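Data availability (excerpt). All sequences and predicted token strings are deposited with the supplementary files. A representative entry, N-ethylammeline chlorohydrolase, is shown inline so that the format can be inspected without opening the archive.
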Amino acid sequence: MTRIVIQNTSILTLDDKDTFYYPGVIDIRGDKIFSIDSWSQDTVLDHYDGQTTIIDGVDKLVMPGLVDLHFHTSVAKGYGDDLPLWEYLDRIWYPSIRALTPETCRTAALHSYITALKSGTTTVNDMYRHLDSLASAALQTGIRAVISNDIALPEHNLDSVADNVQAFHRNNNLGDGRIRVWLGLEWMPLSDAPLLAEIGRMKKELGIGVHIHLCESRTEIADSIKRFGKRPVEMAYEAGILGPDCVAAHCVHLSDNEIRLLAETGTSVSHNAGSNAKLGNGIAKVEDMLKEGINIGLGVDACECHNSTDMFETMKITSFMQRVTLEDASLGQPSQILRMATSNGAKALGIDAGILAIGKKADLILLDLRKDMMFTPLLKEPVEQRRRMLESHLVFGCNGSAVDTVIVNGKIVVQGRTVLGVDEEQIRKHMDTLFHDLVASMPAVTSERKKNS
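Structure token line:
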């Protein structure tokens, strides 16, 4: 069993009591947090038979790792950025992911997971293709990943329920449980009622979760009403897809009844403010959902839709969008936003992490408080004011480049801003080559909207 001790540091636990240590010490044994306490010069480590790594936490902040609740491995960041959602899907997204091979998908996943880890994300909820490749990349990089397919009707040439089920049997619980497989439904415009029912049945049969896009755009809702006579959340509810084991991404344009259904079923929502804004899809009713007790986490979506895997940027955008929309500076407080990015996401995915507490999974990050003066000024005392300033800086003033060290499942996977176990420069070069070849090989575009009209 390995042991990691981080001492003489600031520790933001994000537990229910807002426990904060300065200076503090955190002891990790195996894959769990063994103890958290105050630290002094007199602190002496007890005897331990095994490998012990001691990290000096001076001018560092330890906090829970970030959970990206809606993530897509990405290949085409910065390409076609002037397009709205449906046109972007038709012209860029679907052609690019159809052209992927298992090998190129693995390269794309390595790149995506590397950038996520380097900005402090310890868990991704990744809906994509070629799940064997995603699992392999997650195993190599050390990230925790819930992976799912892009299930759609056969004519859309994406993935089937059978593809997802086979991937589940091959990959679920790999990496000492770091890799888990859920079912993933692309979205209502590429589905029909029998497909939704099949996903609902398989969810129950396998005892796994579902990752789904719901109510992302007004055109999606119009399409659903035209074809089904019902709104997207209502269709998902009737199919047995909603529940505590379901993550519904976006949920921008919800009716009152849809909010009620999400709340009553215990469905979690991934709020993706940056993607929603960039694609011009609108601003979700976050406050209305919170009032009904819906668990809301945060996601960056794909790099194609946000151009970054940095969850710190997502936190800032989330708070700002709610404040400006409702003209209320009391909304989106840092303490609340930080929990959306950590414990709420962990809860949605059924991961025993997201806060720093004894017995929890050791998924945590260390930030350099000296980095580019992002955390300056910062009081040393009183301790409570130091905590509040740190929370403010985290949400409003810093970005992922402040992340120095990342620990997932009790193992150091990023050290000194370098992802261990991968050649980052080689992956960068492979991604450039991959995308150049991918653009040349994309098939002629056929409008998905025309297929469904």
